[in-house]
Write a structure and sequence with these properties.
By secondary structure, this protein is of the alpha/beta class. Among the domains are: 182 residues, Sandwich (Jelly Rolls); 286 residues, Alpha-Beta Barrel (TIM Barrel). The protein is 29% helix and 17% strand. The protein is built from 18 helices and 24 strands. Strands 17-14-24-23-22-21 form a six-stranded parallel β-sheet. A hairpin with a 2-residue loop joins strand 11 and strand 12. Helix 16 packs parallel to helix 17.
């Protein structure tokens, strides 16, 4: 009997000790911030509407909780919700240590994606600090690294949160808009016993190098990760069988046009035409054509800088190794950007893996494989910035891109500054580029040319201001001074109108200041003149070179630029082009009075949850299945729009795990760094390719 009491007492002691230990090490419980059953918690400060059950209905107002929150052991926010919309939604959660600070310093933002019609629990995760934070100082160039989601203690003390803001927005063509999401519960989950991935606990010696010889992250496993050269060969054999089983659409002609569609005039070149109320391309054989394409079809998608980072990589080849070749291979379009940033040493992981996979004749084998893939996957366009050896084989139509060169406007931004179209070098360089590549651009397989990319055009006065900020040698500045002289006649009249103090007309040329009182209409008028000269000069040179070559515009960044610019561009461009990174294009509209064919030069989605990448993309998807659904929705929106004549995904293969020249290391490829296709996305491509012309012509729902 005495022994039994002893056992019972011992059990009680163990339980008590366990509870005491749990409290001492900071084990916490879930913290319920909101529950529809108790709709008025003291910490809830926002005035969002409620439904009959007490659930919060999201509005433009954030859901705000004020108080003293210790979330150091409650880093996952669970939101029980219902998204009634047919589009994706994003949830943003901000943690603030000092909400009174106007610049919102000492805060942290995390976010998550909610699927269309999703109902259930969505968890948004703010990971705890790294065990060995000294590793973070060695993470360079990459936009995101293996620790991108952890709390770096740079902005917010999660144990002293004074405010929690929760916002929801639908992902649409016009950016975020209010979502009618219904929220029934918000809980900060207990994460005190959560175990992070093993690399979060590693020391520097254990962690470096963290990239294997294939350019993959060493410390994580995922579907189709390559562990040996034999794995590469196995993937090659599997894909060849898949391509044989899916040879491509039988409804397309050799150009990818609608063979079974109506017969229009065949001119031997690509052109644009409005047919039955919708804009189309027409291929050289006179068949309707919708450009379903992909940017940067190249073996060198995963070139990465080594400068100051060689210790990231295991088994880099020696100078006499056969793989030393891939220190020298490069992407022709992007190579100048490495030089511009002073990056001297790179390694091309994607091309090295292609060499392992296809052998000594890797360039030709890969080019042949690229065309087979495109046809099988339902793609009919090799879009700009692709490998010349691949697109010149006359197997898939292509669009190329040129850059203008010459003296540029001070203060202009973008990939390259805007060049002065009044300078003779602007015209002569463009003419040289066209003539030097005549065989490419007069080829029937060449759809057309983009010229420049994502210039920052600014507000109506921007180019005029940049002109005044530029040196006297800029030809445009002399034109501007001449225009001002013709309008005002005397420098005194100009000074009176502008509230300026110029001594004479030469003083304007020699000055690089913009007077605060400079007349906005003068600045806007000259901006328009520059922009008109820019587009007209390019159009004139292209059409003088080849009247049948389509001028595809300059790939505007985002949705519509200001109407003045678009109104000028539409006068000269055969096609207006945009790079639009959004979840959907359901609300895309051209300004009133403009009716032109439109092509989407870039879009993409990416996910990292089920891959070895660190950075999903500009537009985040939850996983590979979600990514595929996003693709189908975006392309369907485009097919159903009467002005849009094509979409070009950016890009054919993933960027390097450790980033390119500007740190981009996105999971945006149809294939990964080891040339393995993402099957979920490929299935989506095939579905859209198969139904391309049915959807466009309205024959399919």
């Amino acid at each position: 009997m005495q022994n039994n009491k002893g056992i019972i007492n011992m059990k009680k002691l163990i339980i008590y000790t366990t509870l005491l230990f749990a409290c001492s090490v900071g084990l916490s419980e879930d913290i319920v911030l909101f529950d529809a059953k108790d709709p008025n918690p003291a910490t809830l400060k926002s005035k969002n509407p409620r439904d009959g059950s007490g659930a919060i209905i999201a509005t433009l107002n954030p859901i705000i909780f004020d108080g003293d929150f210790n979330l150091d052991a409650n880093r996952k926010i669970a939101i029980d919700l219902e998204n009634p919309e047919d589009t994706l939604m994003r949830i943003y959660i901000d943690f603030l240590n000092n909400p009174k600070k106007k610049n919102r310093e000492m805060n942290r933002r995390i976010s998550a994606i909610v699927m269309p019609k999703e109902k259930g629990r969505v968890i948004v995760d703010a990971l705890k600090p790294l065990k060995h934070p000294e590793i973070l100082s060695k993470m360079k160039i990459m936009r995101n690294d293996p620790f991108a989601r952890c709390d770096r203690n740079e902005s917010c003390d999660m144990s002293k949160v004074k405010r929690i803001n929760i916002n929801t927005s639908l992902c649409s063509a016009n950016g975020g808009r209010v979502s009618p999401v219904r929220i029934t519960k918000i809980t900060a989950l207990d994460t005190s016993l959560e175990k992070l991935p093993k690399w979060y606990y590693m020391s520097e010696d254990e962690f470096f190098p963290f990239i294997d010889k294939y350019g993959q992250f060493k410390f994580k496993e995922w579907k189709n990760k390559i562990h040996s050269d034999a794995d590469l060969q196995k993937q090659k054999e599997l894909e060849l069988k898949d391509l044989e089983a899916h040879p491509g659409s039988g409804e397309w002609n050799k150009y990818g046009g609608w063979e079974k569609g109506p017969q229009l005039e065949a001119t031997g070149r690509f052109r644009v035409q409005k047919y039955n109320g919708k804009w189309w391309m027409v291929d050289p054989e006179g068949k309707l054509f919708w450009s379903h394409g992909v940017v940067r079809v190249t073996p060198s998608s995963a070139v990465t800088p080594l400068d100051g980072r060689e210790f990231y990589f295991e088994n880099l080849p020696g100078k006499d190794d056969e793989f030393a070749l891939f220190y020298t291979t490069k992407d022709e379009l992007l190579a100048p950007y490495y030089t511009k940033r002073g990056l001297k040493k790179t390694y091309d992981f994607s091309a090295a893996n292609i060499y392992r996979k296809y052998g000594k004749n890797w360039r030709s084998e890969y080019a042949d494989m690229a065309h087979k893939r495109l046809k099988s996957w339902g793609l009919n366009t090799i879009a700009n910035s692709s490998d010349r050896f691949i697109y010149s084989q006359n197997k898939t139509p292509f669009i190329e891109r040129l850059e203008t060169r010459g003296p540029s406007f001070t203060g202009s931004k973008g990939w390259w500054p805007i060049c002065d179209p009044f300078d003779p070098e602007f015209r002569s360089y463009l003419r040289y580029e066209l003539e030097s590549r005549k065989s490419e651009f007069t080829n029937p397989w060449c759809i057309g040319l983009f010229v420049d990319n994502e210039h920052h055009w600014g507000n109506p006065e921007f180019i005029g201001k940049c002109t005044l900020m530029s040196p006297s040698t800029l030809k445009a500045k002399g034109v501007f001074v001449s225009d001002l002289r013709n309008k005002y006649k005397t420098i005194d009249a100009l000074n009176k109108a502008w509230k300026s103090k110029y001594a004479d007309w030469n003083d304007i040329l020699n000055s690089t200041d913009v007077p605060a009182g400079a007349d906005k209409s003068d600045l806007a008028s000259f901006s328009a003149k520059v922009i008109d000269t820019y587009f007209k000069t390019i159009r004139d040179e292209i059409k003088s070179f080849d009247p049948k070559l389509l001028y595809m515009g300059c790939r505007f960044a985002g949705a519509n630029p200001m109407e003045m610019i678009l109104g000028i561009a539409e006068k000269y461009c055969d096609v207006i082009s945009y790079n639009i990174y959004r979840f959907r294009l359901d609300n895309f509209k051209l300004p009133k009075g403009i009716d032109k064919p439109v092509i989407i030069g870039e879009f993409h989605f990416g996910a990292v949850s089920d891959t070895g990448k660190f950075n999903p993309s500009l537009i985040l998807a939850k996983d590979q299945d979600t990514r595929a659904k996003c693709y189908k929705q975006y392309v369907r929106d485009s097919l159903e729009h009467p002005n849009i004549i094509g979409t070009h995904w950016h890009q054919f293969s993933d960027q390097a795990t450790t980033g390119r020249f500007d740190g981009e290391n996105f999971q945006v490829g149809f294939t990964d760094v080891c040339d393995t296709p993402y099957s979920e996305t490929i299935d989506a491509l095939r579905e859209m390719g198969k139904n391309l012309y049915k959807i466009r012509s309205g024959l399919s729902n």
